[in-house]
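Student: I would love a firmer grasp of how sequence relates to backbone shape in proteins. I am handing you a single protein, as its sequence and its fold in token form. I am told such tokens are a discrete way to write the fold. I hope you can help me see how the letters and the tokens relate. Take your time, and here it is.
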Amino acid sequence: MELTEGRVMTEQGPSFDPRRCTLSIPNELAYLEMVQGFVRDYVQRVGFDRCDQARFDLLVEEAVTNVIQGAYADGERADLSVACERVPAGVQITVHDDGLPYDPSLTPEYRPDADLDSQTAAGLGSFLMRQMADVVEFHNLGSLGKDTVFVKYLDSPSVADAGPPAEAAPLEAPEPVQEPQRIELWIADMRPEQAIDVCRCIYDAYRYTYVNEHMYFPDRVVALNKSGDMLSAVATTVEGEVAGHAALVFAEDTREIADLAIVAVKAKFRGQSIARRLGEYLETAAHDRGMHGLYIEEVTVHTYTQKFCHRLGFADCGFLLAYVPAITSYKGINEKLDSRGADIMGYRYLRPPQDVPLYVPERHRDMVAALFANLGAPFTAAPSSAAWGAGNGAAGPDPDGPPADPDGSSVDPDGPPTELHTSVNVRRAVATIRIPVYGADL
């Protein structure tokens, strides 16, 4: 247990926030009474009477119990924090955890007039919190975890301040779960109501280190699939649990090719060939759409993903050096990278590739020819390729004329200007610059 003074960051550095006090505890119910005493003492200082203090006891019990029992696997060790903060005319309690993603919209609503047998404990817990607090909110913070927040106001204004919050200790990685016996699985497109289970699957495989932060927000996962920017497939057990996920991720300007990505399998279901089956399902979907091909980024920190890609027929064609942040972890496979990692680029043609002339610098021709041979694609070097080589004495485009295309034609000075598309993946710490159109101004 840890109790410290709250800090806020300013331009001059950290400073103290006298209104906020935070308690950090292990995710064990044995600490519940300690949390209740902490909150009770704080709200008493703010000005709440004994009757209200008893309500806070129940609020804390519901919120903390829900987190401990619902956000972590049995035996998983972690910390959670409870923060008390003075707000105008009342107090705000925030329970923060880094456990499983949660979608409150999927919790059945508790109805006091309905039959008791049709009610759920989760629905009752949410109902009780809403009855006892003036405001109850659930905040999905993506890779930063989630907050359960409730606010209760004083019957009459009172003035009180308190001090100290705690920084939660880092979570310890759970031990890998033993592989189960073979089970029956169904592979299908993701349904909207399964989005929260997909987020939990990502969490199980990567904790909060996955670089695509959209995958921690169920509503974003649904929206991406609805817009056609992503096609999610899930492997589901007969009991309805999502065991694995993979997706086709499309670039903003084409639906002809896609990235086979966001492959995640829960640790307890590994060894069932789920990733391969999801990949084959999505490959069939791409065939049915008449797509040209698929590409994939193969993680080099372990060989499984490379074997998985080769079994699906992908051929290596390049490297993405220092592409994977060191924060990325693979639960049960590699808990931490020593430095930024590299990805191997793989590609699979879904249609026979066309034989078109390629303008390649002479010094790179053998390497490019080898890459195309590995892809099973024809390679024809255009006759003027040598003009692109350095120091080979070949004549290039007229230096006094307009800039030329690789095929020797000049760029129209009155044509459209160059288009530069830039994007930054903050979590990956990688920037991408794309040039879909280049003009005389380039």
Remarks:
- The helical segments are 32-46, 50-70, 121-132, 195-206, 218-227, 274-288, 304-311, 365-375.
- The CA atoms of residues 84 and 93 lie 5 Å apart.
- Residues 5-16, 156-171, 385-403 have pLDDT under 50 and may be disordered.
